[in-house]
Amino acid sequence: MTKKERYQFVIDWFEKHAPNAETELLYDNVYQLLVAVILSAQCTDKRVNMTTPAIFEKYPDIPALSKATFDELFPLIRSISYPNNKTKHLIGMANMVMDDFGGNIPDTVPELIKLPGVGRKTANVITSVVHQQPNMAVDTHVFRVAARIGLTTNAKTPLQTELQLIKMIPKEKIYIAHHWLILHGRYICVARSPKCGECGLRPACKYYQQLIKA
Fold first, then answer.
1. Which of 67, 88, 100, 139 is catalytic?
2. Taking residues 94-116, what's their average pLDDT?
3. Residue 199, annotated ligand binder?
4. What is the widest separation between alpha-carbon atoms in the chain?
5. Could you give all domains of the chain from N- to C-terminal order, each with its CATH number?
6. pLDDT grade, residue 212 (50/70/90)?
7. 184: closest CA among 194, 174, 193, 192?
8. 91: Cβ–Cβ under 8 A, 6 or more apart, which residues?
């Protein structure tokens, strides 16, 4: 199977079996999604979803969050990983949006990554989920799944993985392909004991073909 054929098989399978794949973070608008994604770094979506309602109730928008103090916000984030840094990032992010972007969350990756707590992955999530821009956020799940299946070759960094994926995936499907790969990695192609017996991608998967040969 050529790489092009592998990509086509994977895309066709996901389009049939996961046509409505989307983020598991709960949000109502771009502000809530940005807060949730910043909090989700090295933390589960489930834990973030348990934490954000209290934050959004007290700080319903960017102007409100920009007025928060560390001591006020920290208790709401205490149960999240790295709460000190994330508390500072959220307040800093809100202040920069107010001061540098007129209170409007920017919608491009180069502008978003200027915000505290926002790296390339987070910026790609925001622009792909909210605006359906052809950006591929690469977390540990995407990195692992893409390599195992054989969608990437010798990709050593998230950026190398991102560039290889967006080169081969049709532009209009990149935003949903991000969710396909994340969810597949979260529930089927898990890190330690991938559930190959439940996986419909076996005919195209390099990892599975190597298991058979072994």
1. 139
2. 96
3. yes
4. 60
5. 3-22+135-213 (1.10.1670.10), 30-131 (1.10.340.30)
6. confident
7. 194
8. 65, 66, 68, 69, 70, 73
Tokens 């001591």 sit on residue? 71
Residue pair 25/40 in contact (Cβ under 8 Å)? The answer is yes
Could you confirm whether 121 is annotated as catalytic? yes
Buried b (16+ CB within 10 A) or exposed e, 7-43: bebbbebbeeeeeebebebebeebbbbbbbbbbbbeb
Average pLDDT, the chain: 95
What is the structure's pLDDT at 42?
87
DSSP 52-100: HHHHHHH--SHHHHHT--HHHHHHHHTTSSSHHHHHHHHHHHHHHHHHH
Structure tokens at 109: 């990756």
The position carrying tokens 């994604």 is 37
Task: State the pLDDT confidence band at 99, using cuts at 50, 70 and 90.
Answer: very high
43 annotated among ligand-binding-site residues: no
Which of 4, 107, 121, 173 is an active site residue? 121
Own/partner contacts of 189-197, CB < 8 Å, gap of 24 or more, are: 189/141, 189/144, 189/145, 189/148, 189/149, 191/140, 191/144, 194/148
Encode pLDDT of 192-204 as tens digits. Answer: 999 999 999 999 9
